[in-house]
Amino acid sequence: MSPFFSKRRVSFLSGALLSAGLVAACSTSSPSEQQGLSQGQVRQEESSRRYKTAPQDDAAPEPSQVAALEAPEENESARSGGTAALMAPPPPSSPSIAPAPMGRAQPSPEAKREASRRAMPSKPMEVAQGVSGGAVDAMGDFAKEKAKKDQDTDKSLNEGGNTFEVYKPNAFTETTKDALSTFAADVDTASYSMARRYLQQGQLPPAQAVRVEEFVNYFKYRYAPPEEGAFTVHLEGAPSPFNARRHFVRVGVQGKVVSRSQRKPAHLVFLVDTSGSMASSDKLPLALESIKIAVKNLNENDTVALVTYAGSTRDVLAPTPATDVKKIHAALDTLAAGGGTAMGSGMETAYKHAVKKASGSVVSRVVVLTDGDANIGPNLSAKDMLASVQKYVSEGVTLTTVGFGMGNYHDSLMEQLADKGNGNSFYVDSMKEARKVFETQLTGTLEVIAKDVKFQVEFNPKAVSRYRLMGYENRDIADKDFRDDKVDAGEIGAGHTVTALYEVELTGEAQELATVRIRAKAPNGTEAKEQAFPLTRSQLKASLEAASPDFRFAVAVGATADILRAAPAAEGWSLSTTQKLAESAVGTDSDRTEFVKLITQARALTSASARGR
């Protein structure tokens, strides 16, 4: 079982528990009144509004309005855009679809007091002025306090009906006290595509929705593939653009490429959520088109089955050759949304179908397409769902979760299910993303080339005084479990790249900075093999300009994610710096070009927030 499942989750109380009078007190100030408030107070007003029970009341600015916003050169703190992400209201939910709580614990008295405090009218605050006369902090003390509270304890947090897991960002570790950093591989990308949707709708993503590793691993890097074996490792470092005393170090892994014609036959069981919450056009209709894209890219020896769940579970299509496109499409076209959400029952049914064809020569995978809502039936939590089908997972059935929609999206459930099910988690916000996931990435998603992949970086205290891993908080593994092959870890698919970034402070003259160890099992193996790779000063570039474009772009993405999630170590970092760094490494990659545009939108939104809009 993954380590983070042993952590105790605490549900966060949303504004639904507040009295009508208190809610009204938070939301009645007019725009003219707000113009007289300090920036810190306006941010407090926004914070109170975002916890209302009807998030659709917080209308998001149109994309055209965002594009029109000017992004002036803010001072270093305001430019960073860091903790402003915490205050961005979520996108409006689909009409007439109410968020459904999913097996959450009853709020504690402390949580109730905190919710009440958030609803109270904020007191006017002076805006701190710097030498230039600009705002020193675009958020104000209240937002800083909220960011700190959110990061102090891992918990499930509801933002406008969307549920996220909150993880405390990794802090710097003194090498003399702990030289080992151990974590599991992660190739999920859901966090990035969800954050993109927020930004494209004119809103900063909630800080807890941002997972650094999923931002970084969304993009393709030009690592040389292995000549033999499952993967190669690429190490590189360069000075930080934010702090002259620090360097960034990149650990890059490239999996071997398996062509479509070379991969094993696949049996896919598509488990489709057809409950009422899937009615909007960005949910069930987009999910069905995604399946059609997947079927188009399967081989002649592949088979497809279809199971749906709403108030009950239904077998819609028995295992059918992927070449029988007409029959598969006809089954898909009969589906419509309506009823409750018995997700746990649907999971168990899908796994029972998948395990029938599971073997060393066949890839058997359950693909769940849902908004993650689960409100009726047994096994409502991720832990309960996977516990009920654990025997199937051990028999070789893997899991892909694909999320759709906003307003009641359970990101925390989707991400945890994929991790526990030895698979991947994606979020599809458009047909473009559907094609990327089900067409471009399909082969890698299906063909696992290494499982239970663990990383352990041992830093040399004579060369590195402090270090911190950027992201991977929910993939943390105890150092002592690195060589325990019973401990679950991540999977790497064919052609996948895995990238991890460290921020380090160097000391002394020692040439060997660290040793990177990777431990992994063969797809059907039970014993892991270990490889070690030295990181030396010769692999550090003298400047960022001398580093590879892939390195510069990965640092730009990781730093942007740290700013958006208000990581304490990123305080004072600038989005304008990450944008310039990304622009220097775009090339002809359309995904990278899009990322630069997203930073521009994030800067505009941060500037608007700093001006009290």
UniProtKB/TrEMBL annotation:
**Per UniProt, which keywords does this protein have?**
Signal
> What superkingdom does the record give?
Bacteria
VWFA domain location, by residue? 267-442
What SUPFAM superfamilies does the annotation carry?
Answer: vWA-like
Q: Does the keyword Signal apply?
A: yes
Gene3D superfamilies hit by this protein: von Willebrand factor, type A domain
Q: Does the keyword Cell cycle apply?
A: no
Signal peptide span per the entry?
A: 1-25
Compositional bias of type Polar residues: which residue ranges? Answer: 28-42
Q: Where is this region: Disordered?
A: 26-133
Q: What InterPro entries does the record point to?
A: CLCR (IPR051266), Uncharacterised_YfbK_N (IPR022156), VWF_A (IPR002035), vWFA_dom_sf (IPR036465), YfbK_C (IPR021908)
What is the name attached to this protein's record?
DUF3520 domain-containing protein
User: According to the entry, what is the taxonomic lineage of the organism?
Assistant: Bacteria, Pseudomonadati, Myxococcota, Myxococcia, Myxococcales
